[in-house]
Give the backbone structure.
Amino acid sequence: MKVLSVSSEIFPLIKTGGLADVAGALPLAMGTHGIEMRSLLPGYPAVMHKVGKTKKVATIASLFGEKANILSVKYGGLDLLILDVPAFYRRDGGPYTDALGKDHADNWKRFAALSLAAAEIAGGLIPSFKPDLVHAHDWQAAMTPVYMRYRSAPEIPSVITVHNIAFQGQFGPHIFGELNLPPEAFAMEAIEYYGDIGFLKGGLQMASAITTVSPSYAREILTPEFGMGLQGVIGARFAHVSGIVNGIDTAIWDPQNDPAVATPYSSKQLNKRVSSRYAIERHFALDSDEGPIFCVISRLTWQKGMDLLMETVDDIVAQGGKLVVLGSGDQSLESGLLNAAARHQGRIGVHIGYDEPLSHLMQAGSDAILIPSRFEPCGLTQLYALRYGCIPVVAHTGGLADTVIDANEAALAAGVATGFQFASITGYGLRQTLARVFAVWGNKSIWTQMQKNGMKSDVSWDKSAASYASLYSRLISKGN
Ligand code: ADP
């Protein structure tokens, strides 16, 4: 089976969040199911620089007025197709923003182009790779099923995966004339969205199947609170919606073999975590004492509940805990956390920025990770934490609810707890849960048991890859 995956970021080439991790890990996991997955992504400067020599496999003479080359290259086990359109993608800044962090004004065109190129590949642009199915990720690739339907490959099934419904790719109606679509596409059953154009909306309407990254999130996005305006569209297509929890790359995230960890360890050598703990204390200039170290590795945003964290920092310190934060995002949250660190020198450390090795070290040396997200489609940091014996303390929402077993009485009695959940996603709810965390921290044998339970849980791609493989097979045998 040949599958084309389409996404705007892919680890380890370019990453702003969990989407990249999934897009980078899924193709490798699908290989074991006999699926040849090739991944289309834009040729950003970082990508072009890292991949080295490429081979041109196709050209589109005019893609939104620009000549586009499709370049093929293998990179770290990934079979990549790079959409090289210098005018669209060879820019400073991130994949979506300029060097000052502002969205590019022509993002609609940049990602409509990605989708249109994907649809052309689905339609046979590359003779040696004619996909049986196309898998598009998030709004940036969401127009792929739309272009397939109207332009190139209506017979080939497509899957769209929603990693976060908060990002929808909504643009003014004035762009419609430039999208290369027939007039009937500007309709409620297609891409029209409250008078505007909705890329994700269009993809949800046209894809053969919709997946999201956890069963709980699949249910949540049917409600106005989580659906962010798209709950009706999802509801109307409910029979085609499913939730498949993400896995993690257990080779990259392996405490026994991770260059970023101070001393490698297994679940039988938890005492070796202490060297990573010391390394964290040095990095963040923390006191060296026995109190639990809580970590946060996150975008610093409202979605991630970072304002709730701020309401809790004094409490953590008062109870003898320490807190280390790695992240960047909203300026007010960044400065609020830096202020907290200044107020609590030796107890709170904040590192503003993005640092992949440090994130590994923090998982290896912290005792618990705090994830107070208001919504969380899947979440990856709790999965890394489980694998590293760092106990997740999470909001009861989306994938967090699906992957962490709360240390309630029943779970403790059965010896299966892996973390802590709180249902009231408020500062008060988090503080109440922290009281439970400190209580268990006082009982080392339960704490250690929970660490071991977490490290034993299956967070690999095995189960999820099997679910995607069976979804693909079903769709292909049914035909679109
Ligand atoms: P989201 O995709 O919503 O940001 P996820 O939990 O799904 O959240 O994925 C976030 C990913 O980004 C994880 O791999 C996490 O380790 C990583 N991450 C987030 N912030 C940072 C940071 N400042 N430095 C290093 N890695 C980070």
